[in-house]
């Protein structure tokens, strides 16, 4: 069944396929570590996808496109921040609203852009390094966003583990009342985390419309935001495990696409549903570990904070 | 007194909607002085210290620190000025380790390794051993308090505020804490010590300011006053201890045999082989420092956590595998410690909250359909019989003050003609008059033939109402003993002595 | 500088609980008007076309009015089911998938008997539809109770799986053998024994609408009078108090997920046997997601959901009309509906908090 699929190519393409999910999952991981559950990842991703696409087409620069994507995602997340942090709305409902609104608005914004090709995002010129057999293709054949996605995992890991900022962020997510009692600005920290999450999801979305597909169609993210949310649970809120989860998922997507292209005897629909099925399976395995994942979840996750007396 | 003045609070007032928490409060603390702030729950002690710590801003009045104007905008400013605070409900993070918790309370913490070294050094110096790498969630209540104290000490505070520090300690741990505090005072640190425990204040403090309903009603030297005098100043009335009839005890109504259950609470304590029996008319008091299995014991007795059938028996019938409503049918009522969210639903009305546990024994539903009229009657009866101060039974539970809600919750359970009563912290956060009324109601039910289990962290309360006494320590329970003749040292040892001290010494 | 402060009310305000949806609709109309103006349309005309013309314009009303019930029926039916779970803190957001699976199961039963004419066929399809949706909802429910998985994620991911199954079915197993190779099943609305027809001509009333009304009444009684409804509310507001009251959380998850799945499946069956007529790749139009908005807009209250379902149906019909008359893009309506939910969540705080203006603030 794997005959004809080059492992080097497979690894290289799964690294590309998982970029949107890594970016979105890392963003959401930071948000959840700060104690906020933003279920609007899908909405922020698709806003990033459309804003990034429009920005790239209008300016002719793919790099500016990613900036636009980040801004689009962050702008949408600002609504979430306003609702949950200032108007104390339910986080689950607000996140769902974000997704429903994002899907509608993106389709509205993208109307004039269907069928256009965006400016290309080329692989970084590593010269001779890219010629090394296997390793060259796996390590040195990618565009800059692939490296950025890995760097963002490393940076998030380092910040959460070793810096004061990361410590404060974790503290706010663990026990917002105690953090408040010590004088930390719970709300400000959470708003910043939400904006970061929005920008990362937006970048992830932009990668879908600018590199993965690359064009604009309605509903282009096709559930990637939900998978990113599942990956955060899978990762037990740890950055490197989110990377592993995203690569696992990317690998399955690439494999099923290859099988579809190779004309495997399994019907296309069953191959296309496999990533979702496997995500569910992984969620089950992770969550059933005697509540271990649950214990690792930030203790204030999803709770509304209101400083009273 | 030749010691220079450190902090002066001058005519400070703070009002919340509907409540004046502090009204024209004035007092002063000298350097090296241990100053008690004494008052009942709701007297305004917490609001006052929150203002000193910068968490709340006064509406009017001034504070000065060493003669200079002092108005901290936030806790950070207070800490920078040399004010540290140890909270009653700790401001700790269970999923972080000791060093991280300490770092969060400091302005410019050194790198983690250096900080860990300093924690070890300071904790040894003051006799409060602590391992910087341990997760706070795994520590006992006494050890958690040490984390808070050390967090403050590392910043060289001039003033240390301690909010009800002994409520989570065994008598032996209290002794260690007092030694530490005296050592600090001798070094010149002033301590503002908040409590309502009079004997402690007489043993420890140099001066006391007594608050009642937000106002300073007296300032005194505790050593020169009797506990009774101070109590009357604090409460504003003469207290009568509950009356009890030492009636004969009946047959065993509740029996627990080898009960072991895993805790459903994160960082909770599992129960290990707990056994006891309570007779009709008997009150069993169960002491213990918070977090030693009290919540789990209540859950296992109420039926919220199931065990083996024969682990819990009522009138000889195994009910260990039955749920709360099956046990209610057999005559058991229970009142958990946490009023809002466990014993009562905060946003539901008192009527709905009456239905919550009264459904079975009061027959408030027929074939699943709720009889709201009967439920309203039941709620109104509880409100009347237990003197719950509320505008009506249609207000939300969270609108009631802590004491009134406690009266409602306890009243709701006691009004169901129970055969077995299990109560955790019956008078936590309740003023003295209401606490006396609740204790009296419990004793009345016992006199009427109910078997009663009272779990409490208030030793005085337990000694006042119990016939027999046991203690929980790390999920194990001591064998119940008659209260008569118990000494405080024996009680302390039953509660586990000084937790973790021996262990920590071995570690060094 | 004057600042806004929030003060928690001792009890939720009854007045604002009723008023917030109205206020949200008004605010959405204003913001929607701005959005439409930005798209180069006359905002007043657009709002009128969406909210007024479908009901009262002599030219369109005869067509549009029946559509109101046709669209509101499934929205209300699904939203009633979802609202029970949402009240209990159980978040089934995969109603779209349960809707698809109910439609598939019901249609498959009907098509299996084609072209026989049995009186019991339609009732049997109704049972199969409910069962299909119920089974699909049982997956996240059982995974949650057994393995502690997050039902939000699983129920949502199950939508994508259902969509793929739908595609596979309309291209394969359920494809019309006489359809000339086009995807899509036989037309059930032209198969009398299996069709869900308009019951009273010109009203749009079909069995699904009747089921929706019945669901509203049943949910109302359940929540007001029955101990089960009380336990549902209790579990959502204070989970530990619910355990104290003897509520079995596992049973509640299975029950709430089951009811919402079965109702969504029913909605799918009634749709596929009636207004949609056949199984096709995209016969589902997102009712399962819009019903989430309906549930919240109705404040999770059965009567509120009835009104919210009618209102949301109006935006669908009005949106189509605006698309036809003014060239307003279909996506604008979707964004408009999303906005409605935002405003609702935003003003919701008025029922639980008092907003105060004051110069001083707590150190927050």
What is the element layout, followed by pairings?
The complex is a heterotrimer of chains A (309), B (508) and C (364).
Chain A: H1 7-17, H2 19-33, H3 41-59, H4 62-86, H5 91-109, H6 135-140, H7 144-162, H8 164-174, H9 176-181, H10 186-212, H11 224-234, H12 239-261, H13 268-287, H14 292-296
Helix pairs in contact in A: 1-12, 2-7, 2-10, 2-11, 2-12, 3-4, 3-5, 3-10, 3-11, 4-5, 4-10, 7-8, 7-12, 11-12, 11-13, 12-13
Chain B: E1 5-16, E2 19-30, E3 34-38, H1 45-52, E4 60-65, E5 68-69, H2 75-80, E6 83-86, H3 98-104, H4 112-125, H5 141-153, E7 159-163, H6 171-186, E8 190-195, H7 198-204, E9 207-212, E10 215-220, H8 227-235, E11 252-261, E12 271-279, E13 283-287, H9 294-302, E14 312-314, E15 317-318, H10 324-329, E16 332-335, H11 350-358, E17 365-366, E18 369-370, H12 372-385, H13 402-414, E19 420-424, H14 432-447, E20 451-455, H15 459-465, E21 468-473, E22 476-477, E23 481-482, H16 488-494, H17 501-507
Parallel strand pairs in B: 3-8, 3-9, 6-7, 7-8, 13-20, 13-21, 16-19, 19-20
Antiparallel strand pairs in B: 1-2, 1-4, 4-5, 9-10, 11-12, 11-14, 14-15, 17-18, 21-22, 21-23
Helix pairs in contact in B: 3-4, 3-5, 11-12, 11-13, 12-13, 13-14
Chain C: E1 3-8, H1 14-38, H2 43-51, H3 53-56, H4 61-87, H5 95-112, H6 121-147, H7 151-171, H8 207-225, H9 227-237, H10 239-244, H11 249-273, H12 287-297, H13 302-326, H14 330-347, H15 349-352, E2 353-358
Antiparallel strand pairs in C: 1-2
């Amino acid at each position: 069944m794997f005959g004809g699929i080059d492992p080097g190519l497979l690894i290289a393409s799964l690294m590309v396929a998982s970029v949107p999910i890594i970016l979105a999952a890392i963003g959401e991981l930071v948000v959840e570590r700060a104690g906020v559950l933003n279920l609007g990842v899908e909405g922020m991703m698709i806003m990033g996808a459309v804003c990034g696409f429009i920005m790239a087409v209008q300016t002719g620069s793919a790099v500016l496109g990613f900036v636009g994507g980040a801004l689009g995602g962050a702008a949408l997340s600002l609504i979430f921040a306003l609702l949950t942090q200032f108007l104390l709305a339910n986080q689950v409902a607000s996140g769902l609203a974000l997704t429903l609104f994002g899907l509608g608005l993106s389709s509205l914004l993208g109307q004039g852009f269907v069928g256009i090709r965006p400016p290309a995002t080329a692989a970084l010129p590593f010269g001779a390094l890219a010629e090394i057999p296997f390793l060259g293709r796996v390590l040195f054949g990618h565009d800059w966003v692939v490296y950025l996605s890995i760097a963002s995992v490393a940076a998030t890991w380092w910040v959460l583990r070793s810096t004061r900022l990361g410590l404060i962020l974790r503290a706010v997510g663990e026990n917002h009342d105690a953090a408040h009692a010590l004088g930390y600005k719970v709300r400000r920290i959470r708003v910043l985390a939400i904006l970061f999450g929005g920008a990362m999801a937006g970048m992830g979305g932009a990668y879908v419309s600018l590199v993965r597909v690359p064009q604009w169609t309605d509903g282009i993210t096709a559930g990637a935001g939900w998978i990113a949310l599942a990956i955060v649970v899978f990762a037990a809120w740890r950055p490197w495990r989110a990377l592993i989860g995203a690569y696992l998922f990317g690998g399955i997507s690439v494999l099923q696409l290859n099988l579809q292209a190779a004309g495997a005897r399994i019907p296309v629909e069953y191959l296309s549903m496999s990533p979702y099925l496997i995500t569910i399976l992984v969620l089950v395995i992770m969550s059933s570990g005697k509540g271990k994942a649950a214990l690792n979840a930030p203790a204030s996750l999803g709770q509304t904070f209101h400083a009273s007396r | 007194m030749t010691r220079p003045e450190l902090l002066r609070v001058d005519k400070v007032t703070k009002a919340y909607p509907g409540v004046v928490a502090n009204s024209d409060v004035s007092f002063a603390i000298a350097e090296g002085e241990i100053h008690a702030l004494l008052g009942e729950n709701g007297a305004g002690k917490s609001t006052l210290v929150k203002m000193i710590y910068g968490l709340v801003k006064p509406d009017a009045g001034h504070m000065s620190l060493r003669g200079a104007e002092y108005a901290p905008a936030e806790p950070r400013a207070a800490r920078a000025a040399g004010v540290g605070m140890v909270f009653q409900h700790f401001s700790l993070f269970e999923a972080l380790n000791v060093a991280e918790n300490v770092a969060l309370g400091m302005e410019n913490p050194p790198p983690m390794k250096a900080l860990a070294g300093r924690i070890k050094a300071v904790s040894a110096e003051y006799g409060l051993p602590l391992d910087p790498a341990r997760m706070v969630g795994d520590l006992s209540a006494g050890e958690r308090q040490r984390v808070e104290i050390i967090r403050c000490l590392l910043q060289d505070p001039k003033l240390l505020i301690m909010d009800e520090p002994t409520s989570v300690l065994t008598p032996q741990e209290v002794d260690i804490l007092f030694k530490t505090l005296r050592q600090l005072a001798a070094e010149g640190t002033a301590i503002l010590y908040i409590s309502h425990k009079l004997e402690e204040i007489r043993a420890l403090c140099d001066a006391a300011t007594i608050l009642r309903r937000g106002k300073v009603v007296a300032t005194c030297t505790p050593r020169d006053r009797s506990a009774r005098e101070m109590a009357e100043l604090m409460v504003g009335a003469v207290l009568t201890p509950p009356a009890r009839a030492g009636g004969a005890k009946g047959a065993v109504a509740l029996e627990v045999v080898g009960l072991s259950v895993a805790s459903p609470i994160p960082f909770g304590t599992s129960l290990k082989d707990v056994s006891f029996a309570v007779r009709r008319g008997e009150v069993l008091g169960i002491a213990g420092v918070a977090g030693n299995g009290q919540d789990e014991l209540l859950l296992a007795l109420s039926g919220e956590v199931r065990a083996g059938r024969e682990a819990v028996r009522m009138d000889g019938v195994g009910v260990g595998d039955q749920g709360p409503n099956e046990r209610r049918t057999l005559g058991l009522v229970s009142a958990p410690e946490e009023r809002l969210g466990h014993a009562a639903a905060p946003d539901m009305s008192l009527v709905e909250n009456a239905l919550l546990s009264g459904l079975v024994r009061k027959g408030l539903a027929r074939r699943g359909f709720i009889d709201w009229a009967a439920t309203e009657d039941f709620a109104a009866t509880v409100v009347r019989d237990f003197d719950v101060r509320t505008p009506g039974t249609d207000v939300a539970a969270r609108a009631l003050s802590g004491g009134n809600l406690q009266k409602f919750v306890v009243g709701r359970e006691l009004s169901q003609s129970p055969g077995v009563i299990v109560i955790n912290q019956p008078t936590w956060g309740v003023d003295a008059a209401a606490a006396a009324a609740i204790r009296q109601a419990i004793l009345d039910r016992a006199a009427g033939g109910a078997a009663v289990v009272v779990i409490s962290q208030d030793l005085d309360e337990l000694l006042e109402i119990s016939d027999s006494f046991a203690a929980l320590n790390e999920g194990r329970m001591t064998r119940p003993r008659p209260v008569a003749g118990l000494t405080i040292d024996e009680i302390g040892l039953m509660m586990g002595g000084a937790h973790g001290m021996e262990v920590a010494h071995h570690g060094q | 500088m004057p600042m806004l402060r929030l003060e928690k009310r001792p009890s939720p305000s009854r007045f604002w609980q009723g008023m917030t949806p109205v206020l949200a609709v008004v605010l959405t109309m204003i913001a929607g008007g701005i959005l439409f103006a930005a798209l180069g349309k006359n905002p007043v005309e657009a709002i009128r076309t969406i909210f007024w013309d479908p009901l009262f314009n002599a030219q369109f009303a005869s067509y549009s009015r029946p559509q109101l019930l046709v669209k509101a029926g499934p929205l209300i039916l699904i939203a009633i089911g979802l609202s029970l779970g949402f009240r209990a803190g159980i978040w089934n957001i995969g109603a779209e998938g349960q809707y698809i699976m109910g439609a598939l199961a019901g249609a498959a039963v009907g098509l299996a008997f084609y072209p026989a004419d049995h009186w019991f066929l339609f009732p049997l399809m109704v049972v199969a539809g409910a069962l299909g949706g119920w089974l699909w909802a049982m997956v996240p429910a059982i995974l949650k109770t057994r393995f502690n998985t997050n039902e939000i994620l699983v129920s949502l991911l199950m939508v994508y799986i259902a969509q793929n199954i739908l595609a596979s079915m309309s291209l394969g197993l359920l494809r019309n053998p006489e359809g000339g190779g086009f995807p899509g099943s036989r037309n059930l609305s032209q198969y009398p024994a299996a069709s869900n027809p308009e019951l009273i001509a010109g009203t749009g009333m079909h069995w699904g609408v009747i089921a929706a009304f019945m669901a509203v009444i049943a949910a109302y009684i359940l929540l007001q009078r029955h101990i089960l409804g009380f336990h549902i509310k209790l579990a959502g507001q204070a989970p530990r108090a619910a355990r104290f009251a003897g509520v079995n959380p596992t049973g509640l998850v299975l029950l709430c997920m089951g009811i919402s799945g079965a109702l969504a499946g029913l909605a799918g069956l009634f749709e596929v046997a009636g207004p949609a007529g056949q199984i096709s790749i995209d016969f589902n139009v997102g009712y399962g997601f819009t019903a989430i908005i309906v549930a919240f807009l109705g404040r999770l209250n059965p009567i509120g959901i009835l009104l919210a379902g009618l209102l949301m149906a109006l935006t669908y019909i009005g949106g189509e009309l605006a698309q036809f008359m003014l060239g307003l893009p279909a996506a604008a309506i979707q964004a408009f509906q999303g906005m409605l939910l935002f405003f609702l969540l935003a003003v919701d705080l008025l029922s639980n908090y008092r907003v105060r203006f004051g110069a001083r603030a707590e150190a927050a």
